[in-house]
Amino acid sequence: MPMLVKFIHDLTNNEKLQRAFAENPKKAMQQAGLSTKQQALFKSRDLQRLSQAVVDELHRSPAIGYWFMPAINLTSISPASGRQGQTLTVTLTGQYFTDPMKADIENNTRKVPITLQSVTGCGQEKSQATGSLALAADLPTGPYTVRVTSSDNATSTLSMGFTVNASSGAKRATAPAKKSPARKASGAKAAPARKTRAKTPKK
């Protein structure tokens, strides 16, 4: 069994080790065979880093390995769409994420990396990662598959999980302008001829 996993197991179940650790933690960890890095990690009480170290040890263990740890699983991405030329902050949600891990969107011709900045809930049933996704101005529009790859190269995908839309500045076809009917030239209207009455001859 890996050293760190064994030490945590024994510390949880062995009263003698619990007393020794309470009296002199450094000596107890040295006697258990923990490395200087493992000791520093254990003393830091950083549960997230400690959990990830346990996950990594179990993955490397030939006796336990991949059988023990559930596979990475991607369940959603938010937002699920963007426009050509945009740079988005995206959130990936799933299970059993690792740190480090990789993520991207891809189709048959293009693959765009998601630059991950933080991963929380490593090795847990509720995991989340945030990162930046830059969509090139010439990126083909349409659906893309979202892929995450764990530190041990296990992958999980969301088929057509992200959509690239056309840029808002894309030219739209416009209907030809209608020609206004030609106006008739305005000219002075000829006054109608007045009828003259015949004079009555004087008697």
Description:
Strand 7 and strand 8 (155-165) form a beta hairpin. By secondary structure, the protein is an alpha+beta fold. It has helices at 3-13, 15-23, 25-31, 36-44, 47-60, 65-68, and strands at residues 73-78, 81-83, 87-95, 102-106, 111-120, 127-134, 142-149, 155-165. Helix 1 packs across helix 2 (15-23) and helix 2 (15-23) crosses helix 3 (25-31). The longest helix is centred in the first third of the chain and has 14 residues, at 47-60. Helix content is 27%, strand content 30%. The radius of gyration is 38 Å and the shape is elongated. Strands 1-3-6-5-4-7-8-2 form an eight-stranded mixed β-sheet, with no helix packed on it. The protein starts with a helix and ends in a 38-residue tail after the last strand. It contains six helices and eight strands; from the N terminus they run ααααααββββββββ.
